[in-house]
Amino acid sequence: MPTGKHASDGDLLAWEDGSVNGARRTWLASHLESCLVCRDRLAQFQGIERLIQEQFPLIDDAESQKEILERMRVELDGKCPRDDESS
Ligand SMILES: [Zn+2]
């Protein structure tokens, strides 16, 4: 297993919607358990996905969603303080 390699955005999205299987899933599960960086990114995706569902409910196309995600992620990186305050 390669070390120092993080899950890709696609991996995290697939994990989130349950479409990752087999060895990939096993790798992700153990990686997410040990990697705070990827857990943090996954948490961001989970929040962003909810936002997308609320704001762009008609977009059901993975490519478009990815574009939006990418844009929102850049905004989040600039705006959100990196603390553990969840509510
Ligand atoms: Zn990672």
What does this structure look like?
This protein is an all-alpha fold and 87 residues long. It has one domain (9-79). Helices cover 68% and strands 0% of the residues. The protein contains four helices and no strands. Helix 1 crosses helix 3 (36-55), helix 2 (22-34) packs across helix 3 and helix 3 crosses helix 4 (62-79). The termini are far apart. Zinc ion is lined by residues 6-7, 31, 35, 37-38.
Write a concise keyword list for the protein shown above.
87 residues, mainly alpha, 4 helices, 0% strand, binds zinc ion
Largest sheet data: none
From the alpha carbons, calculate the radius of gyration and give it in angstroms: 14 Å
Determine the mean pLDDT: 80
Query: What is the number of strand segments?
Result: 0
Which regions are unreliable across 5 or more consecutive residues at pLDDT < 50? none
What is the 3D shape?
globular
Report the order of strands and helices. HHHH
Structural class: mainly alpha
Helix share bin:
55-70%
